[in-house]
Design brief:
Length: 101
């Protein structure tokens, strides 16, 4: 499993509209091959800052499958105009440590 993480800075005054658009966009991403789950967290200390976490089966499910799809075009249309600056998206894999699962 791969964890995609993106810190999203939404333009001032656009938080409510962004959250509504994200509800709609959630249906797009959740239908993609390799999608496992996602969550959106709102920062308590910094207004208009969000953390998006998406679990994918493989890196390619995100980078090739989703990002190269027509669905991603719809996702961008719903969400990308809310960001300033455009977010950095990074991918993480679990580190297994002794005594953990």
């Amino acid at each position: 499993m791969i964890l995609e993480a993106a810190m999203l800075q939404v333009k001032p005054g656009q938080g409510e509209a962004f959250e509504q658009a994200f509800r709609e966009a959630s249906g797009i991403i959740s239908a993609m091959k390799g999608y496992i789950g996602h969550e959106l967290q709102r920062c308590m200390e910094v207004p208009n800052k969000y953390l998006l976490l998406v679990k994918w089966e493989t890196l390619e499910d995100h980078t090739d499958g989703f990002r190269q799809s027509e669905s991603y075009t719809r996702w961008k249309g719903l969400l990308h105009h809310y960001y300033d600056p455009y977010p950095v998206v990074e991918h993480f894999e679990k580190v297994t440590l002794p005594g953990t699962s």
